[in-house]
Specification:
With 96 residues, this protein is of the alpha+beta class. It is built from two helices and four strands. It has a four-stranded mixed beta sheet with strand order 1-2-3-4. Helix 1 packs parallel to helix 2. The model has no long low-confidence stretch (mean pLDDT 88).
Length: 96
């Protein structure tokens, strides 16, 4: 499973990138054989709005799963989106 993290220039901090990679991997480790690539896009507006985190996973056998979250802190947005992505992946992979 390959994980790509990108976002607005203010969010290109190595610790946040590493954290996002860790959270995605830890949430999707059980599905690593089913997931080809996960893209994480973080965006933070210049005003006081929450950070947005969008994750999309490409499955090995076709299909794509998306999850989106917002949080006052980037880490909270990442956590929520990773959890949503894992839940959606579990449903998709378990479906007959």
């Amino acid at each position: 499973m390959r994980i790509e993290v990108s976002g607005s220039p203010a969010l290109h901090v190595e610790r946040l990138r590493a954290y996002a990679e860790y959270r995605v991997f830890s949430q999707l480790a059980a599905f690593a054989h089913e997931v080809r690539t996960v893209r994480v896009v973080l965006s933070q507006s210049t005003d006081d709005r929450p950070t947005s985190c969008v994750m999309s996973a490409e499955l090995r056998h076709g299909g794509r799963i998306r999850a989106r979250s917002r949080g006052r802190q980037a880490i909270r947005a990442v956590d929520a989106a990773a959890t949503k992505l894992a839940d959606a992946t579990r449903e998709q992979v378990s479906a007959p």
